[in-house]
Amino acid sequence: MPDIGQQTERSSVMADAINKLVSTPLRAAKWLRSRLVLSGDIDVSDRHVLIIGGNFGGLAAALALQNVCRVTVVDPRPDFEWTPHIHDILSGLKLKDHLSFDRARLFQRLGHEFIQTSVEVLDPIGRRVTLGNDRELRYDACIVACGGVQRPNVVPGGQQHTTGFRHADQAELIEHQLTALADKQKAVTVTIIGGGLSGVEAMGSLLRNKRFGGKLNLHIVDAQDLLPAFPDELTKDVRKQLKKKKVTFHTGPKCAVKRVSRSSVELLDGQVLQSDVTIWTAGIQRQGLISQLCDEKNLQLKAADDGIGLVVDNALNPVLDKPQYGYADAWRETLFFAGDCASIVDQKLDKQAYHALDMGEHAAENAIRYFKADKPNNFTNANKPVLIALGDLEHYFAWNGLIAAGSVFEAMKESVFQVYMARYSLVLELKDASLSTWRRSTRALTRQLLPGMLPSGFWQTVESLFPNPLVALPRAALRRFIFGQRIIHYANPFTESADQT
Ligand SMILES: Cc1cc2nc3c(=O)[nH]c(=O)nc-3n(C[C@H](O)[C@H](O)[C@H](O)COP(=O)(O)OP(=O)(O)OC[C@H]3O[C@@H](n4cnc5c(N)ncnc54)[C@H](O)[C@@H]3O)c2cc1C
Q: Which of 24, 37, 65, 157 has an alpha carbon 20 to 30 Å from 91's alpha carbon atom?
């Protein structure tokens, strides 16, 4: 009997040899072109980069390619959205406009073309895509930053009776529904399905809202626990902060959702929760376009185990699932993946906006390097913290085994948002840029940061402001932002990883 292991090994060696045979002349031609034909700095302005998806990864790539080459960005949605702050729409601190930019204007100002539709088919070998409007587009290099899509709510009634929580317009819809209900009813019950980061942030923001927060009864449902991706101490602290609020937790396998109706949510253990508004915050899954590329009848790119993206190497080029015969895989060098849809082969990255930004920029740099026949650079991730908001109850900072809590992290989270949005608005005309930055920052200052610094209670406020405001305000700021910060968990990441080995 022939050994199957040996056969597979032999076939992969053969496939490698065939690929090398076909791709070597191509590489040699590219090298010659760069060394002989175009000596000096190579002009790549006639090259065409297609960017699929115009949010974090796509925008970062588009910014890096400004004035470098011809760029087309394709996205079915009209606005760039700062997703990490959509919970602030629920608290009433921000409006949709504060979190978004019109893509057509933004990309046009960068000198790029924006097409508002989706990419239906990507053919990397032919270097072309078919768009939702049936138009075909060719490219020299393509950056895919299409993110993930919210996992559909497949339980009976889920699609009809829950509102997703992935885009600003969904958050706006929930806020409007609750405001209307709170005007009519004495109490309003909300069920949040999904106790991950976005579910917890949504819960905190709902409680913070002055227009309906006091009238709310909240259920939070998750078949695991709250914030399962973080240490237990964080979960315990979140529960502690919510103890005095009208929040009921339903967590664990028996609390999986069985059915949703217009006014209730039924759990596996038989409990039926009355629910005026039901919010679906469960995680994300692979976009159709990514599934297509991983399909065994298609290119068989390697799907990532996280169920969201596909596997890329350190240069952000895709990895093949199996060796393939008969054609060179030089096309891989023209295709880059960035953000949530990319899982780097030996780096474990959370699905976070700042990774998407860094990867988008890196993919753009490598696309230029490809045009110049330079070796691509490897991506190294910047190890940045995760900031979690629990309304005005608490803010958390999670980084390298450390979890801390305190209001200084609210200021930190807000500053990241303000700085990035101000930077993006600089692309617009000066008048629009200053207006939007002014609106965003004054709103944060007057509704969020300053009120948080003032002592609670009207008389306390008057007393501290009027006798000596010059002392009272800095004192309040000190108390809020310097003292009162807590470390709630620390595990040395180095000893932890040593323990695991
Ligand atoms: C509620 C919530 C809270 C979050 N909080 C945080 C946080 O606090 N900190 C943090 O760092 N991250 C946070 N995240 C995660 C963060 O938003 C994502 O990691 C980030 O959006 C990923 O960026 P991306 O560019 O890869 O994908 P996305 O932002 O998802 O953008 C993908 C874009 O591709 C487009 N697209 C999809 N398919 C196609 C197609 N076929 N053709 C063309 N275009 C397509 C989509 O319309 C979309 O605009 C949060 C996410 C959510 C939902």
A: 157
Q: Which of 347, 376, 401 marks a domain boundary?
A: 347
Assigned domain for 408 exists: yes
Domain boundary among 297, 316, 347: 347
- Burial group, residue 407, by CB count within 10 angstroms (0-12, 13-18, 19+): buried
**C-beta separation of 364 from 356 below 8 A:** no
Q: Which residue has the tokens 């791709």?
A: 23
Q: Given the CA of residue 198, which atom of ligand 1 is nearest to it?
A: 1
The tally of domains found in the chain comes to 2
Q: Let me know whether 401 and 320 are in one domain.
A: no
- On whether residue 28 sits in a domain, the answer given is no
For residue 487, give the 3-state DSSP assignment: strand
Whether 55 and 145 have beta carbons less than 8 Å apart is answered as yes
CATH number of the domain enclosing 59: 3.50.50.60
pLDDT one-digit tens code per residue, 72-91: 999 999 999 999 999 999 99
What is the C-alpha separation between 139 and 299, in angstroms, rounded?
A: 18
ipTM of this complex: 0.99
Q: Which atom of ligand 1 is nearest to the CA of 53?
A: 34
Q: Residue 337 falls within a domain, yes or no?
A: yes
Strand arrangement of the beta sheet that strand 335-337 belongs to: 113-115, 70-74, 48-52, 141-144, 335-337
Q: Is 83 in the pocket of ligand 1 (CB under 6 A)?
A: yes
Which structural domain, as residue segments, surrounds residue 408?
386-490
Two tokens, residue 358: 């860094």
pLDDT band at 382 (very low <50, low <70, confident <90, very high): confident
Q: Could you please report the per-residue DSSP string of 42-57?
A: PP-TT-EEEEE--SHH
Q: Does residue 300 lie in a domain region?
A: yes
Residue 479: predicted pLDDT:
62
Residues 323 and 397 in one domain: no
Q: Report CA 136 to chain centroid distance, whole Å.
A: 29
Q: Are residues 406 and 454 in the same domain?
A: yes
Q: Which residues contact 376 (CB under 8 A, 6 or more apart)?
A: 315, 316, 317, 333, 366, 369, 370
Q: Is the CB of 122 under 6 A from ligand 1?
A: no
Same domain, 421 and 483: yes
pLDDT at position 1 is: 44
Residue nearest to atom 1 of ligand 1 (CA): 198
H/E stretch holding 389: strand 386-390
pLDDT digits (tens, 9 = 90+) for 131-169: 998 999 999 999 999 999 988 888 999 999 999 999 999
